[in-house]
Every structure is written in structure tokens, then in C-alpha cells.
Amino acid sequence: MAGWSLSAAAGLATGALRSALLGAPWLLTAVLLTATATTAAAQEVVPYTVRGDGIDTPLTSTPGDPARGRAIAASRQQGLCLLCHGAPMPEALPEARFQGNLAPDLAGVGARYTEAQLRLRVVEARRVHPGSFMPSFHSTANLSRVGGAWQGKPILTAQQVEDVVAWLLTLR
Ligand code: HEC
Questions:
Q1: What is the C-alpha to C-alpha distance for residues 79 and 169, in angstroms, rounded to an integer?
Q2: Which pLDDT does position 144 carry in this prediction?
């Protein structure tokens, strides 16, 4: 939960800053500029190199956090992984109650794949299976029918990808 409550909080904070800025532009300009710059940077695709069927180098210098990754995976706003996949999740997590069966269960993926392979599957699943309907979570290449608001923006930020990969690696 922490992952998306945090981003919801960040959204609220940005909204509040925006309204404050409308009322008193001179007061919060610097703060808002900083917040906007951070958000914009977070939405860009980080360049990555595919070697074999993996991406060896983490997309960020901050190591992924498995707990945040699990929250992102379960979230109906962010990862949406459970729309298609089943996965071991704590019973108490309401969002994890209904799980999909359109795709392989994620139980054991941490043992079946290397970190590099998991990173590529999350970043750009179609590199592995060209016909895949799994979304490319951190790629803006070779997509079709992307809604206006999402053009040029990845679904998950680089850090969120690292968090999800860290969580997948715990599924052994
Ligand atoms: C719209 C459906 C869909 C969504 C959403 C989805 N996937 Fe997938 N995923 C698939 C399908 C289908 C496959 C099987 C291989 C393929 O077609 O790419 C797959 C394969 C995988 C694999 C390899 C599994 C194996 O056993 O071979 C991993 C790991 C994976 N997905 C992780 C994720 C994660 C993490 C998320 C959320 C961030 C996610 N997927 C979201 C459909 C989906």
C-alpha cells in the first residue's frame, strides 16, 4: 500500500501547491518548480540496453524496494499485474483478493528468471514475446493506440520498475 498512498499523497500535495500558487505566485514558485521538475523527470523513459533476453543494469542507482514493488503490483492504479497474473500476496491486502488467470502465475518467477530477465519482462515484454499483450511498463517504443495523456510516458517510472523487479525476485 505504501507505494500508492505515497503517490496519492504526492498528487494531493502537488494539487495543493498548484492552488496555492494561483493565489500567491511569488510565494511558492521555487517549491512548485522543484516539484514539477521532479515529476517530469520521473515520467521519462530511462535509456536501457537489452543484452540477450535481459537488461543487466538497474535503471536507477537506488536499489528496488520489494515491499513497494508488491504494493505497485497489487495496485489497480499502477501495476495492474493481478489483472492478468496470480501472485502470492498477503491475505489482508484487499486489492490482492481477486487475481487474474490470463497469464502465468508469478509464484516462483524469482527462481525461474534472473534479475536481468525479470527487468526486461517488466520494461518491455514484447521484446521477449513479440505478440504479447502484457503492457510494456517502461518503454514508449512500438506501442499502438496510446491515449493522448500517456503519449511518450512510461506506465511505471524507472524506480517503480526496480521496486517491482525486487519484489519478483522474492517470489522463489
Ligand atoms: C494484460 C495482461 C498482463 C498484465 C497487466 C501483466 N502481465 Fe505479465 N505477462 C502477461 C502474459 C500474457 C505473459 C506470458 C508471456 C507473454 O505473453 O509475454 C506474462 C509474463 C510475465 C512474466 C514471465 C512469467 C513466466 O512465468 O514466464 C513476468 C515475470 C510478468 N509477466 C510480470 C508482470 C508484472 C510484474 C506485471 C505488473 C507490473 C505484469 N506482468 C502485468 C500478461 C500480463
A1: 16
A2: 65
